[in-house]
Amino acid sequence: MASLTVRGGALCAASLLNIAFVFVSSADFVQFLSFRAIYHNITGETRLCDDSVPWSEALQDRSVLSSLVVDLGLLALFTAQHSLLAWSPVKRALQAVLGVLTRTAYCFTTALALQVLMRHWQPVTGAPCLWSVRHAPWSIWFPLLCFVLHFLCWAIIFSIILIFDYPELLGIKQVYYDCFGLGDPLSHKSPGARRLLAHLRHPVCLELGVVLWFLPALSLDRLLLAGTLSAYLALAHSLDKQDLEYLCVQLRSKVRLLNGPRHPDRCDINGCAL
Question: Which chain regions cross the lipid bilayer (predicted)?
């Protein structure tokens, strides 16, 4: 019993430390995606690009090209980590070694890869912006509009993550269930929920897309970041008819709980009759 208690305590400590690291990394990621591109555009404290340089000259500048190569390598590192550890053979190998800490390790390495990307990212300031709002009064009002929209998108993203079983997503639920002998948390979910989770581990595609692209100024390095992450998110989603039917049923049940008993309605992939 003592060894089990020590083991359970060690697992819980590792999982809780991972959650703290993921939380800090998430806050840094919000700052990385939204703060520099919006706040500094308002204050002018940091130059995001140089519109006086022609594109023909900028694309031949060694500093610009070297920065893009570094940024592309950082994006490749992140996407490789995120995809390789989600690959079934690798997941099975990690499961055999780490057991219930497999999901914790995945989240930790994802946060670590993000930290490496954010800390070593090379802004491209020697090339023109693809667009830039600099004329009054929009030079003030449009960045403020971007700030409000980014704030709402991040609030929606974190709300969806909380609804999407946040403890299981970060690995703490797996440790809790293991300590109390309850097995794998996924085994307690319905087949429809397990199928949906297998196809949709990133339920924030639209909101993150807005954060990536809706900016007062779009620099060359931001174009690379937004384009790569948008393509990756699009490829990572593979919802099909059964997933949409499951989401439709769940939406109808949630609305029914909020509004009280209703007459049964039909629900198909084209929408829910609520």
Answer: 97-118, 138-164
3-state SS track over the chain: CHHHHHHHHHHHHHHHHHHHHHHHHHHHHHHHHHHHHHHHHHHCCCCCCCCCCCHHHHCCCHHHHHHHHHHHHHHHHHHHHHHHCCCHHHHHHHHHHHHHHHHHHHHHHHHHHHHHHHHHCCCCCCCCCCEECCCCCHHHHHHHHHHHHHHHHHHHHHHHHHHCCHHHHHCHHHHHHHHCCCCCHHHHCCHHHHHHHHHCCCCCHHHHHHHHHCCCEECHHHHHHHHHHHHHHHHHCCCCHHHHHHHHHHHHHHHHHHHCCCCCCCEECCEECC
- Which residues are 267's β-sheet partners? 272
Query: Per-residue pLDDT for 1 more than 90?
Result: no
pLDDT digits (tens, 9 = 90+) for 83-128: 888 888 888 898 898 888 888 899 999 999 999 999 999 999 888 8
Note the pLDDT of residue 136: 73
Q: What is the pTM of this model?
A: 0.76
Q: What is the pLDDT of residue 78?
A: 94
What's the mean pLDDT in 214-231? 92
Q: Are 40 and 48 within 8 A, CB to CB? A: yes
Burial of residue 50 (CB within 10 Å: 0-12, 13-18, 19+) is middle
Q: Which residues contact 241 (CB under 8 A, 6 or more apart)?
A: 269
CA 270 to chain centroid: 27
Distance, in Å, from the CA atom of 111 to the CA atom of 87, rounded to the nearest integer, reads 18
CA distances in angstroms from 25 to 35, 111, 214, 224, listed in the order given? 14, 6, 22, 21
